[in-house]
């Protein structure tokens, strides 16, 4: 089975994440998309980051009607901070019959050369890239790598930061969130302080 791993803090997960995940599931030749919830890095200030389990619950609520999209807490069980190369090695060992690929925005591709052991990732895994609007210069060398697949996906300019800030200001951002995620956030008074 071909699995696309879509990493994120999902604080909160929003319709933009689902649009991209669903597009990859339908058009990139992947059987499933696992939305890997990144745990809180203990070295970073927590600020507005919700608890790991709360963010996982929101991903679960957002994806339960999408059979090809699954929440994943795989990084919760690994040493911190999490490095993608370690997560991939762990998954390959745990699921030897699956083929794992990465899903990332074009902005992340531009900094991939700074990732720990990025050459190992490129050697063993395909990377599916969705377009992002960015002022950063392109990494042309990486973009033409045979393991990099730039997918003509919709450009979605919604950010979790925008959503959190607007909830705090009392704005109605319901259309940007899956309904069950909005209900969960509203019921628990998340992001209001």
From TrEMBL:
<comment type="pathway">
    <text>Cofactor biosynthesis; NAD(+) biosynthesis; deamido-NAD(+) from nicotinate D-ribonucleotide: step 1/1.</text>
</comment>
<keyword id="KW-0067">ATP-binding</keyword>
<dbReference type="GO" id="GO:0016779">
    <property type="term" value="F:nucleotidyltransferase activity"/>
</dbReference>
<comment type="similarity">
    <text>Belongs to the NadD family.</text>
</comment>
<dbReference type="InterPro" id="IPR004821">
    <property type="entry name" value="Cyt_trans-like"/>
</dbReference>
<dbReference type="Pfam" id="PF01467">
    <property type="entry name" value="CTP_transf_like"/>
</dbReference>
<keyword id="KW-0547">Nucleotide-binding</keyword>
<comment type="function">
    <text>Catalyzes the reversible adenylation of nicotinate mononucleotide (NaMN) to nicotinic acid adenine dinucleotide (NaAD).</text>
</comment>
<keyword id="KW-0548">Nucleotidyltransferase</keyword>
<dbReference type="InterPro" id="IPR014729">
    <property type="entry name" value="Rossmann-like_a/b/a_fold"/>
</dbReference>
<keyword id="KW-0662">Pyridine nucleotide biosynthesis</keyword>
<feature type="domain" description="Cytidyltransferase-like">
    <location>
        <begin position="5"/>
        <end position="165"/>
    </location>
</feature>
<keyword id="KW-0520">NAD</keyword>
<protein>
    <recommendedName>
        <fullName>Probable nicotinate-nucleotide adenylyltransferase</fullName>
        <ecNumber>2.7.7.18</ecNumber>
    </recommendedName>
</protein>
<keyword id="KW-0808">Transferase</keyword>
<dbReference type="InterPro" id="IPR005248">
    <property type="entry name" value="NadD/NMNAT"/>
</dbReference>
